[in-house]
## 1
Amino acid sequence: MEILERAILEKGKVLNGGVLKVGAFLNNQIDVNIISAMGKDIYEKFKDCGVTKILTVEASGIAIAVITAQFFNCDTVFAKKSKTINVDGELYSAKYFSFTHKNENTLIVPKEYLDKNDTVLIIDDFLAHGEAVNALIDIVKQSGATLAGVSVAIEKGFQGGGDELRKKGVNLYSIAVIDSMENGQVVFRK
Amino acid sequence: MEILERAILEKGKVLNGGVLKVGAFLNNQIDVNIISAMGKDIYEKFKDCGVTKILTVEASGIAIAVITAQFFNCDTVFAKKSKTINVDGELYSAKYFSFTHKNENTLIVPKEYLDKNDTVLIIDDFLAHGEAVNALIDIVKQSGATLAGVSVAIEKGFQGGGDELRKKGVNLYSIAVIDSMENGQVVFRK
C-alpha cells in the first residue's frame, strides 16, 4: 500500500542487524491517519471472511488491531507476554522465541475471550521469522476457533516467515513486503 | 458516562485486594464501540485545549489512546516500561511503583517524539494511586511540553490518586469514578 511504503521510506530507519525502526509512525509514536488507512485496507481484504474477533499481541500490535476492529465492528483480544512457563487451565498459551529480544516468551490468552464460535483475524505490526504469528495461530487452534487469516503491516520477506505461512495455506495479507534492506536501502516486493 | 458505568456493572468483576477486572471490554478484550464512545467523550472535554499529542503507557492504555487520537487527529506516543534503571540521554524517563504488580518500573519515551512545541493529553485506562500518571506528567515536564490534562477511563476514587492530582491543579477527567467496591458492590461517585 502506497501510504505505508512512503512512510517507511520517509520516516523509517534501517539499523544494524536487519532491524527496521518505524517508531516514528507505527509502534512507539502512532500516526492515526496511516494506521486508519491500513485498517481500511485490511478490512477490504477480509471483509467477506465472517471475522468475529481480531487477535493481536501486546504492545505494538494493539493500535492497528483496534483501529481495524472499528471497520469490522468486532472485539479485539490481545495476547499478553508472560515469562511464566506454567500457566493455569483458564488460559490458552503458546511459547515462541523472539529474535528481536533474543528470549523465549509465552503468549497467553484467557479462555473466556476466544472459543469455537469465533472466526479470527490475526493482526500484528511486523512479520519476520513468524514466531509470534505462529504462536497466535497455535492459540486459535487450541480454542477451536476458525482462522480467517493473518494480516501484518510490514513483512520482512527476506526472513522467510511470511512465505512459510503461505506454503502452509494461511490466508496472509502483508500491507508492505520488504525483500531487502541491504546497505540501508529498503526494496519492496512487487 | 453511562455506557462505561453500565459495562463495569455488567461485565466487570470485583476481585480481592481492591482489584476491578475489566478484561472483558477494556484491557484484554477490547469492545471497540465502548472505547469509541469514550474517545468521543474525552474529545468533548479537551477539544478546546490545543492538544497536539496524546501520551499513554503500554499496553492497556494504547487502545483508548489511539481511538481518542482519531477525534483529535493527532499522533499518539506510548511510554514503554523498562526494568533498566540506566537509560541513555536520548530518552525521557521516570520511575514509578506499580501497586498492581508490586514492583518498580521505569517509563521511557524517546526524546524525538515529544518536545516543547507539544500540548499533551495523557490518557490511561486506570487511575488508582496515580503512580503511572505522575510518571507521565514528569516526562511531559522533562520535555518542556504543555500539559493539557489527564483523562482516564476508570478512576478508583478510594485510592486517592485522582484527588491528589486535582489538588495540584491538574485538569483531570475520569470517565467513571468508583468511590467504593466493598463487598463486591461498585459504587460510582456522583
## 2
Amino acid sequence: MTQENIPVEELLELVNAKQLRKIKTILSEMNEVDVASFIEQLDSEKMMVVFRLLPKDLASDVFACLPIEKQKEIIDSTADAELTTIIEDLFVDDMVDMLEELPATVVKRILKSATPSTRKLINQFLNYPENSAGSVMTAEYVALKKNMTVEQAFAYIRKNGVDKETIYTCYVTTAQRKLEGVITLKDLLMSPYETVIEDIMDTHVIHAMTTDDQEEISKTFNKYDLLALPVVDHENRLVGIITVDDAVDVMEQEATEDFEIMAAMLPSEKPYMKTSVFTLAKNRILWLLFLMISSMITGNILGHYEEAMAKVSILVTFVPMLTGTGGNAGSQASTMIIRGMTLGDITPKDIFRVLWKELRVGIICGVILSAVNFIRLAIMYPGQELICLTVVISLFATIIMAKSVGAILPIIAKCLHLDPAIMAAPLISTIVDACSLIIYFNVATVLLNAYL
Amino acid sequence: MTQENIPVEELLELVNAKQLRKIKTILSEMNEVDVASFIEQLDSEKMMVVFRLLPKDLASDVFACLPIEKQKEIIDSTADAELTTIIEDLFVDDMVDMLEELPATVVKRILKSATPSTRKLINQFLNYPENSAGSVMTAEYVALKKNMTVEQAFAYIRKNGVDKETIYTCYVTTAQRKLEGVITLKDLLMSPYETVIEDIMDTHVIHAMTTDDQEEISKTFNKYDLLALPVVDHENRLVGIITVDDAVDVMEQEATEDFEIMAAMLPSEKPYMKTSVFTLAKNRILWLLFLMISSMITGNILGHYEEAMAKVSILVTFVPMLTGTGGNAGSQASTMIIRGMTLGDITPKDIFRVLWKELRVGIICGVILSAVNFIRLAIMYPGQELICLTVVISLFATIIMAKSVGAILPIIAKCLHLDPAIMAAPLISTIVDACSLIIYFNVATVLLNAYL
C-alpha cells in the first residue's frame, strides 16, 4: 500500500546481468529498509557485490537493518579499514544489539577495529542488564548548555547534529553532564535568536534511570507521547537517550512476550520462522509437562467419582461442556485483567472492584448459558428433571467460580511479583477444570442421592 | 519512576483551601498529561474551578487528555465564546475522537461554536470510515513548495509551525495540494540557507491512502521507523498526516483487540474499569454460547463410548489429561502463528513450512510427554500394559494432531479473510478436544478389544 513498489524482479535481473551502475542508481534512491530486504534475498557473493555499491551513508544504514546472519557475512568479508567505517557510523544501540548476538571471535575483531572511544562506549553499554533502559538507549544525543543563546544552539546542532539519533529533542546538561533541562527543536525554532536557553528550557524533565525496566519505558512513552526519553545514571548524569522507534520495538516485543506467556510458552527471542524446531520445542515442553501433570489431578477427581458415573452413565457426557465453558469463562476474565494491568488501567488495589464486576458478569453469563442448557436438556431428556437440574446448577456455579478465579489470580500473581500473564487460559483452565468437577459431582451427589 | 512525583495530596489540600494562585503556579509547570489525571479526580464543580485557572494553551492540551465524560462536563459548563477557543486549539484528530463519542446535542453545539473552516474540516474527517487512515489522521501539517529556499522554508515554519501537530517532517505539495516530496527538519537544518527545497527533498514519499486500514498504517510506521506518515486521497492530494504517537495508540489498541479476540470475546472500545457490566457480558456471551454448544458435541462423542468406559472404567480418568494437553499443545502453535501473521513474519504462502515445523515440534514434545506418562503409568498401574500403551499412543497422536490443527487453522482463516485471531486457544481446544477423544477411543477399541 503505502510505499512505492520496489522493483525486486528488475533489480534481480540487473544483478544477474551485472549492470552495476544501474543497480547503484536505483538503490541509492530507495529507503534503507527496502534496500536491506532486497539484499537479504541474495546469496553471499552477490550480496557483497551489491552492498559494496552502496554509498557510504546508505551502506551503514542498510547494515543496521540487516538480520544478524547477514551482518556476520558482511563483517567476515570486509577488510579492517572498511569495517571501522561501518562501525563508527552505527548508533551504539544497534551496535550493542548486534554484538550480543555475534560469536566471540567476531566481537573481538569488531572491538579491535573500533576507535578507542567507541570501544569504551560499547563496553559500557554491553554491561547494562538485559531489558533495562541502559540496554535499549543510544549515546548519540544533542547536549546543549543553559547559557547558550538560541542562535548558538542552532550553530551547535548544525555542526554536530548529522550523526545524532535525534535532534528534535535536545538536552541541557551541566559541565558534569548532569541533566538540567530539555528543549525541543520546535521551541528553539519558535524563539528569537537571542533568547538564552535557560529561559525557555523545561526543567521538569521526564527521564528514566539506566536500570529501569524497558516495559516501564514504553509505558512512559505512551503516556506522555514522547519522541525521546533521556536516561540518567544514579548520579543524575545523562548517559543516553531512547528514541520512540526503539520504544515502539520494545512495545511490540513485550506484547509478543505476553502472547507467548499467555499461551504457556517461554518467550522466544527471534521471529517464528527463524527459530529452530528444537528451540520451539524447548520453549513449549516445560509448561506442557507442568500442565499435563496438573491435569492428572483432574483425572483423579474424575476417577474418584467412577462409581457415580458407572451408575448414572449419562453424567460423563456433560463433563466436556462444563469444564470447557468454565475454562473459557475464566480465561475471558483473566485475559481482560492481565491486559488491563499491562496497560496500567488496573492495579492490585482494584481487586475488590474487579471481583465485584466479574461476579455480576458471571451471573449474567451464567443465567443465559444455564437457561439455554435447561431448554436443551428438557427437550432431549424428558422426565429426567433431577439430572437436568444437576447440570444447570453446576454450570451456573462453575461460571461464577471461573470468573472469580480468572479475576483474582492474575492480581495475586502481580502482588507476588510474578508475571500476571502466566495466569492465562492454560493455567486457569486447568484449575477451573478441577474445581468444576468437584462442584458437579457434589451437586450430583446431593440431588441424585437416590441413584448413587 | 521517570517523571517527577506529582504532589497530588498537596494540590488537593490547596484546592480545598481555595489557594487558587498557588494551584495555578504549580499546574502551569506540570505536564498536561499529569494535570489531566489530577483534574480527573476532582468533582465537577472543583474541576471547573481548576480548569479555568489553566493558561489558555495548557487548557486545550489538558482538555485533549481528559476522558470523554469530563470533556462533556467542561463543554456543558463553558460559555460559547470560551468553547470556540478550546475547539479551535484542538487538533482535528482529537476533536473527531471526541465528537464520535458525544451525544448529538453536544456535537451540534460544538459545530455551531466552531469557525466555518473548522466546521468543514470536522465534517470531512467525520466521514472517513472507522479504523481507516482517514479516521486517525490530523490536518495540522506543514506544507512547503518546491521552489522555496531553505531560508524561506524556515521563515514559513517559524510563522506557521506553532499549532502544527509536527514540524519535524514537512511535505512538499503542488498548487493543487498534490504530494510531491518530503523533507525533514533535520535535512533543512543541515543544508545551506540558499538551497532550493526541490534539490534536497525526497520524492519517494512513503504515504497512505485515506481508506487504508489503521493496522497497515502502524505496520508501516514500525517498518520504516517513521515520525509521521502523509495521507493522500485518491487523486494523490495531501489531506492529512498521522503522527507516531497516534500510530502507537493504534498499535496498542490492535494488540488489545487481538488479546480479546484470542480469548473468545468481542473487542471492547473502552478500558476494562470503564466498561459496564452489561457490555462486558454482551462481549463475552456469544462466544461462550457458541463454544458451549460445540463442546456438547465432544460430550456426545464421550457418550458414544459410554459402554467402553463402563467396562474399563479407568479409561475416563485419562480424558482430562489427553484433552487438556492436546488443547495446550494446539494453542501454543496457533498463538505463535497468529502473532507471526500479525507482525508480518508469516504469510499464507508459508503454510507448508509452518506445518513441517510444527510436525517436528509435535514429535519432540510428543515423545517427551509420552515417555513421562509411560513411566508414571508403568509405576501406578503395573501389569496393565495395554491400557498404558493406549494412553501413550493416544497422547502422542493427539499432540501431533493438535500442533497441526493449531498451525493450519489460523492460516486458513487468513486465506478466507477472517481474523486469524479467532483461531486461538478456545476454538482450537474445542476442536482438539473432540479429535483427541476420537483418537483415544479408537486406539482403545483396537488395543483393548478383548475387554470392550
## 3
Amino acid sequence: MTGISPKDRWIRRIPVRMTPPAIKDNTADVDRLVKGTEKALGGEEVGIDLAFSRKVPLLLREHGYHVRADLYKGRSSWHLVNIVAPDEAPSVYGLAVDLGTSMIAARLLDLETGEVKEETSFLNPQIHVGPDILTRIHFAGQEGGLQELQSLLINRLNQEIQSLAERQGISTKNMVGASIAGNTTMTHLFLGLDPYWICREPYIPVLNRPGLIRPRDVGLGIHERGVVFVFPNAGSYFGGDLIAGILASGMNHQEEFSILVDVGTNAEVVLGNRDWLVACAGAAGPALEGGVASMGMMAGPGVIDKVVIDPASGEFQVRTIDGLSPVGICGSGMIDLVAQLYLAGMIDIRGKYVPEKCGRRMRTIDEMQHLIVVFSKDSGTGETLTLSQAEIDALMRSKAAMHTILTTVIRMVHLEWKDFRRFYVAGTFGSYINPRSAIVLGMLPDLPLDGYEALGNTSLAGATRALLSLRKREEVDEIRNRVTYVEMNVNQEFMNEFSAAKFIPHTDRTLFPSVP
Amino acid sequence: MTGISPKDRWIRRIPVRMTPPAIKDNTADVDRLVKGTEKALGGEEVGIDLAFSRKVPLLLREHGYHVRADLYKGRSSWHLVNIVAPDEAPSVYGLAVDLGTSMIAARLLDLETGEVKEETSFLNPQIHVGPDILTRIHFAGQEGGLQELQSLLINRLNQEIQSLAERQGISTKNMVGASIAGNTTMTHLFLGLDPYWICREPYIPVLNRPGLIRPRDVGLGIHERGVVFVFPNAGSYFGGDLIAGILASGMNHQEEFSILVDVGTNAEVVLGNRDWLVACAGAAGPALEGGVASMGMMAGPGVIDKVVIDPASGEFQVRTIDGLSPVGICGSGMIDLVAQLYLAGMIDIRGKYVPEKCGRRMRTIDEMQHLIVVFSKDSGTGETLTLSQAEIDALMRSKAAMHTILTTVIRMVHLEWKDFRRFYVAGTFGSYINPRSAIVLGMLPDLPLDGYEALGNTSLAGATRALLSLRKREEVDEIRNRVTYVEMNVNQEFMNEFSAAKFIPHTDRTLFPSVP
C-alpha cells in the first residue's frame, strides 16, 4: 500500500531476548521484560498493565527469557499486550472496519506483512431498529435504547470476528488491534455515547476525538489487552468516515486542489490541498442511492448497473450484475438510466417524460406516467420494472442538491471548477457511478473524465491505512485539526442556485460544454 | 508538611468555566471540557476515559458549563475523574496506607488543605493465614491462595474506607486517590502478584515499579475512576516501605551522611546523602520486637515500655502504657530492661545472669534461669512476669546481628561511624526505643544522642508525602533508581564481627566510649 512501510507499524510483534535473573542482577521479571522490549525498540518507552504483569514471571520462565512481544504504540509510549514463544505462529492481526449506516465492511489484515487476509461486509444490524440515523438517535433516547443499539452492533461485529478467526484458523487473541471509521452518529453508537445532541441545534457531539480505547471499553471481541483506534469527527455532520476518506485519497498531501465527494443521502464534500481543507455536508436526499425508486435496490445479482439507450432506435441495453435477468436497479444504474433517457430525448431538460419519444414503453399507472425499463417477459421477477415521473423528480432534486452544494462550497472558498485538477468520488456507491452520466445530468461538474477517480470504500481504506501505519494514524488527527467545517447556509442564493440546477444539465449551459 | 505546597498537588479539584456551545463553536462536549481544563491548568495535557465521557454532556448542561473538575496527574498528562457543581462540598480526599506485615495504618487526607482528617490502624487480616511473610508466600502458592490473601487484604481495606467515609460524613467517591507503601511481598499480595519467586534464589520480584494503577485493578473501594500510587521496590528485600522511609527522612537531600534503620524482624539499613544511597537488609530475628519473650507483646495498655533499675538497691521501676498494672513487655521495653540489667550488674557482658546480683528475683523454671520482672501481686495478669536466659540470648543474637549489619554496610562503603551525623530510626517500634539503652547494649552505634531521630511510621509518612506532592511522588522513583541494594554477604568476616558483637556492648570497648 502506497507510502506505508512495515517499519511504521504501531502494532508489532518483535523478538526480545533477556539475560535471565541472577543474584547480582535482581531486576524484577516485569521490569526486565519492559527494559528488554525498550532496548529492542531502540530506546522507546514501554508500559504494561497490572493484569498482564501477573502472567509475566511464568511466561518468561517457560520461554527461557527469550520471547516475542506483541505491542502497540499509544499516545506517547508502547504497551505490551502479550508475549509468545520466539517461534510462535501465526502472526499478529488487525481489523479495519467501516461502520456504515447501512452496511458494515471489515478487513482482516496480517500486521506483519500488511496483507489483506479477508474482507467481508454485512448489514448493519441496527437497521432493524431504524434504517436511518435520525430514527436511531431517537431510539437511543428511550430507556435502554442506546445500550440496545450498541449491543446489536458489537454483537454482530463479534460474530464476524469469531467467523473470521475460524475461517483463518487463528484465535481472536491474534487480533491485537482494530481501526474503526464511521460517521459521527455511528461512532457514538459504537462507543455507547448518547447521540441525543447530534441532531439538535447547535449539533454538538459528545466527543470529537475518541483516539485509542481498550476493546473491553466497548466489549469488542479481539485480544482483551489489544487496542482500538477510533477515528475522530470534526462535528456532528463530518464524521470519521470522511476523515478516513481524505486520508485514503491523499488529497491533503497534493499541491493541486482536489474535490472529494461522498455521494449518499448526505452529500459530503471536501475541497483543498496540502495547505488547506474545507468540508461541507448537505442533504442530497436518498434518490441518488436509488432509495426512492420502486425498483431501487442495493447492488447485487440481477441488479441493473448500466443502461445504454440507442437514440435512433430507442432500444434499451441493460447490463446486470452477474449477467442475470434484471430484478431491480441500483443508484448508479438509475443515474445511467436517466442520463440515457435525456440523451435519447425521452425526458426533457426539466426531467419530464416526453411521451411521444417513449412510445410503447410509456404507461399511466395511478394517474402517473411510468416508463417500462424492462418488460415482464425479460425481467427476473416476472413483473415489469418501471420508473415513474415522481422517481425522476426525486432524482432531479437530489442531483440539483448535489450540484448546488458543490457550487456553493467552491464559491465559499473563492475558487472555480476549473481550478480543480482531481475529483475523487468516495463510497461504494460512488465507485459504480459512470461519471459521464453524472456529468450529463449535471450532478457532477463538467471536468475532463481523466480527473475523476472512484476510490471505492474510502472509509475502509482510510481505516486500513491508520491500522498499518503510525504516521497515517497520526495524520488522522492532523487532518481533523486542519479541516474547516463550514455549515451549508441555505439562503436565497442557495435556493436560486438549486432552482437553476434542477434542469439537465443546468440552466447555464456554459457550465457543461461537453453535454449536447 | 515540610516542603509540600498545595500548588504541587497531583490530585486536584479546579474550577473550569467554558463557553457554552453554539453553531459557530461546535466543539464536542468532552473536547470542550478537556480544552477548558487544559486551559485552567495552564496548558497541561488532559485525558478522559470513555466511561466518564458518556456522562459529560448531561453534567455540563446541568451545571451550565461551569464546573469544578477532579483530576489526577498520570505519568505525563492529567486525567479527569469527575466534574461537580462549582460550589460542591466536600473536598477531594486521599488515603495514605502503610501495608505492614502485622499492622496496617491508614490516613485520610483532605487533598485541598493537606489536613489529616483521621488516622487509623488495624491488624493485617492475612495474619490469620500466617503471621510471617514466608508462610503467606507459601500459602499464595496453593490453589486460590493468592486470591484469598489479596481478598482478605482488600476487603479489610474497603471496610476501613467505608467506615472512614461514614465517620467523616463523606462518600467513598470523594476519595480520589490512594498511596500505598509496603514491603515487597505485601505489595505483591496487594496487587495480586504471585510472590513465589521472592523467597527463592535469585529472589526476583514480579514487578519493581507498579506506579499508578486504577482502583478497579485491585478492587479498592475509592472512586472507581480514581488512582492508586503504589510504591516501587528495589528488590525482594528492599520494599516500598523503606523507600517511603527514605522519602520521609529527607536524607536523600542532605549533604551530610545519614543512616536510616528500620528495626524489626529484618533490619533494613540505608546509608547515604544527596549524592548516593546504599541499602542493605539482614535478618535480625524477632527478638528485637519482643516477639520471642514469653511476656512479649505489642504496645498497648498495661504494656511495659520503660524500665529503670537502681544499681544500688536493685529496685525496679517499670512504666506501662496508660499507667495500668503491667501485663507484658514490648520490644522497646525489652531493650530498656536488658540494658538496665547490664548497668545494674544483673547480667554480664555475655548477657548471662549474675544470680548473686539478682537476689530474690532469680528463679529456676524448667531448669532455666528466669528473672522476675514483675511479681504476681503487682502484675495486671495475677501472674509473675519473667524473662528467661534463653530470651536474653535471643535478644543478644538480634542486637549482635543488628550491629553487625550496620558495621558491615558502613565498611562496604569505606566509611566509619564518626562520618555519620544523623541516625534515623524508623518504624513504630523504633520510635519507642530509648536510644541510650540501645547504645548501652551495643545494638546501635555510640553516636551523640542528639544525632538520633525516631521518625515513627516512616512508611505512612512517605506514603502521605507522595500523595500530597507530585515532586515527592516523582522523588520516589528517583530514590528507587538511586538506591544501590547490596546483598549482605554472610562470610567469615561477618561471622567474626557477629561473634564480637554478641557482647555488651562489644568486645571492642573503644567503639562504645560512653558505655561504662
## 4
Amino acid sequence: MSYDFDEIDRIVNARSLAVVGASNSPTKFGYMFTRSQVTMGFDGPLYLVNPKEDEIMGRRSYPDIRSLPQAPDLVYLTIPAHRSMEVLKDCAEVGVKAVIITASGFREIGERGKALEAEALEISRAGGFRIIGPNCFGIYNPRNGLTLLPGHDFSTRTGDVAFISQSGGYSAHVARQAKSLGIDFSAVISYGNAADLDESDFLRYFTDDPETAIITAYVEGARDGARFAEALKAAASAKPVVIWKVGKEESSRRAVISHTGSLAGSPALWDALIKQSDAIEASGVDELLDIVLALKYIGRGKAKRLLISGGGGGLGAYGADLAEREGLEVPDLDPATLSRMQDVLDRAGAVAGNPLDIGAPLIPVPFLEGALREAALNPTTEVLVFDLAVNFGYDVAGDFGIERAVEILCDARKVSGRPVVAVLYSRSFDPDDMRFETMIRRMRKRLNAGGVLVFPTMARAVRALGRLS
Amino acid sequence: MSYDFDEIDRIVNARSLAVVGASNSPTKFGYMFTRSQVTMGFDGPLYLVNPKEDEIMGRRSYPDIRSLPQAPDLVYLTIPAHRSMEVLKDCAEVGVKAVIITASGFREIGERGKALEAEALEISRAGGFRIIGPNCFGIYNPRNGLTLLPGHDFSTRTGDVAFISQSGGYSAHVARQAKSLGIDFSAVISYGNAADLDESDFLRYFTDDPETAIITAYVEGARDGARFAEALKAAASAKPVVIWKVGKEESSRRAVISHTGSLAGSPALWDALIKQSDAIEASGVDELLDIVLALKYIGRGKAKRLLISGGGGGLGAYGADLAEREGLEVPDLDPATLSRMQDVLDRAGAVAGNPLDIGAPLIPVPFLEGALREAALNPTTEVLVFDLAVNFGYDVAGDFGIERAVEILCDARKVSGRPVVAVLYSRSFDPDDMRFETMIRRMRKRLNAGGVLVFPTMARAVRALGRLS
C-alpha cells in the first residue's frame, strides 16, 4: 500500500483507544499494558475489552469491540496470535482506523505463523484499517498520552526526537534511558514484524512530521530494500537520522529471523546504504542517545576541531588519540592564545597547549577560569572538551571543588558561545556510598542547564562528536 | 643500571618513610600527600620534614633529612624541582634507599628541566639510591600502607593485580575505580618521567613478584624500546599483561612529550610489539578494569564460544553482532539442549536457541530457571551471557523480579561450573531517583558473591570477553 502521511498521523495521534485483552491478572501482558496506559493517562476515551471481566482497574470492561459506544481510532491487541483473527474481523466490522498487534507467534515462527500473518493482513485490507506489528510493543506519543507495553513511567513532555524500533524491548529501553537524560520524543514506534506499516512508512512519516527534528531507528532488516533506501535518503537529507542496524553477522542474522522474521540483508549492502544516505550510524542504546545529545547541543558539521583539556597529562594524550582515530582534529593553539594561556597558567604541573593540562588535582579557581576561557575562545577551537576527573579538587575541597569547575565550564560556554563538553563520571559503584554518585548527577544537571553537554567517559564523548562530522 | 628484584622490592615494601615538603597548607601537594599517607596509616616510622613548621597534623616536623632519627628507606619529595637538589644531596649523605620525586619541571619542560633531571640522576648514582619519577604520584602498596598523592581512600586489602602508570592521574583513577569494583592490588606505581627506574624495571619486578598474578600498565612511551620489548615479552609469557598505550596519534604524541618528556614511538612498532608479546591491549580505564575482571573471573582462552541470552530478541541479535565482530562465536545449540530448552520454554514470545530470547518483561521463574540451566550446561557453551534488561520483571514485581533473576544466574553458575556474565545497568540518571541505582549496585554485589561477573553494557561485556581470546 502507498504511504499516506495523514493516515499514519491519525494513528499516532489517535483520539480514542481500546485495549483488547485488558486484564486484572498481573502475569499477563494485558494487565501490564493497561496499567501502563492508565498510569500515563490517555487523552481521550480508553475502552478496556475482556469478555471474562466486568471491571478492570476500576473501569468498565466490555465483552468485545462491537459493544463499545464508538469505533475507537486505535485498538491495542494483547491476546495470543491464534485468537486474534476474530477480533480483527470485529475491528473491520465497526471501522477502526488501526490495530496494534503485540502478540508473537506470526511470521517469525515459520509457516504456521506466516499463514496467520497473511490472514491478519487480508482482514485489515478488506476492512480498511492498518496494522502495526505483530510482535511489537506499540506506540508512545506524549502528545495524546498513548504509551507502549511497559511504558507507565515514560516522560509526559513532548520532544522533537522520533524513535522507530523493530525491537519492542529497545523501544522501552531507549524511551526510559532518554527520559533521565532529558531527551523527549515526538513519538516512539515499535513495529515488530512490520506485516503492514513498515520501517519505510514510519521513516517517511517522521521525515514529513513537523514535530520531529531528529529521527532515530533500530532496524534488523527492511521489508523492501529499495523502498527503504529511498526513504532513508530522503529522511537524511531533510533532518539528522541516527540508525542502529543489527543482524550484520551470521549468528545475529539467525537471531533476527527468529525474532521478527526479517531478512537482515547483506552487511556490505547496509553499510553502503547508510553511507550513501548520509545517515549517522550508531551501535547500542548508549551510543544512539549520546549522538542525539550531541546533535541537540551542537549539531552536525560543527565539531571537527577539539580542544581537549583536564587535570593531568594522561587524559589529554588519551583524548587526543581517541579524537584522531575518529577523524577529528586536536590542532595546535593559536600563538596569541598560547601566550595568554601561559600567562594565566604559570604554575607547576600545568601545560598550556592542546591538549591542555591544567595540572589538577589542585588548581586555584582564577587559573582554571582564565585557562578555560582562553581555551574556549581560541580561534581554532570548535568544541572545548574538559575532563572533570573525579578527584578534581574533591579530595581537598569536597563538592566545592567540583561545583566551581562546573561554574567555570558554564561560564566558558557563555563567554565563548561555543559548544562545551564535560566528561563527568562517578568513582564509586558501592551501594553503601551513593553520596558521590548523587553529587555527580546534580552536577550533570547543572552543566546541562548551563548549556554544557555531559558524557560519562572521554571515549563516549569523542565517539559522539566524531559521529557529527 | 641493571635490574635488581630485591632493590625494587625493598622500595615498594619500604619500612620507613619521610615526606619532605609536608605541609599544613591545604593548597599544597605536600599537605594532600601527608593527609593521604596519615589517613592510610603507614606501617612503620613516618617522618614529616618541613623547616618552616614545628608540627604538621599533630606530628613533629623535622627541619631536614639529616635531622631524622634514622635514614628512611624511602623519601617522598613534594617540593618544587629547583629546590630538590639540596634535599637529594642530603638523601645521599644519610643513605636512603630511594626517593620519589613528585614535582614536574624536569625533562618534560625542555632544556632547563633536562639539566635538572640529569643532575638529580647524578646525585642519586653517586649516593647509591634510586629515583622514582620525577613528575609522578608515587607508590601505593596496601601491604605496608604506602600510598600515592591523592590516595587517602584506597583499599587497605592486598590483592594480586599490579598497575604501572606513567600518568599520575590515572594511577589514582584506576586505584579508586578498582576499589569499588572489588579489584585489589599488589601495588600501583606511578613513575612519570622515569629518569632512573623505568617501565621496564617495574615490568620485570612484577613479573618476578610472587604476589602479582595480573600486570596492568598505562604507558606513553619507553625509555629503551628494545629493553621494554624484552621485558614485555617475558612478562606476558609469565602472567597476563594488560597494556594501555597512548600517544599513537600526532597530537597525542605532542601531548606525551609535554607530559612526561617521553618519546611515544611509532604506532605500528607498538602494535607489533604488543601483538608479538601476547599482551592484551586495552584503551581507557573502564576497558582496562573490565579486562582485569574478566581475567579474574574467567581467565584467558576460555571464553570463545558464548551463549547470549536475555529478555527480547533485539538484545540477542545485537550481542551476537558484537561478539562475532570481536572474533567470538555464538554457535548453534546442541540439538538435545535445544529440544529440552523448547520444552521448558514453551510460551509466547520466547525463542529457544542461541541467542536465547526468554521473552521478558514477564517470565515465570521456573521457565527462566530451566532455560538458563540448559543454556549454561549446553555442550558448546563456554560462557553464558545474560542481559538483565532493567525492566526485567521490575515493573510488575519490583525488586523481587530482579532478585529472582540474580538468584537464578548464581544457580546457573553453580550448577554448570561455567563462567556466567550478567549485563546489569541502571535506567535512571536522575539525582532525585537513586533507589534504582542503589538496587542495581546491591544486585551487582550479590552476583559477584555468587561468582557471576557483571558489566554495565553488552558492548563492554563482549569486548572484555573478546580480549581474553
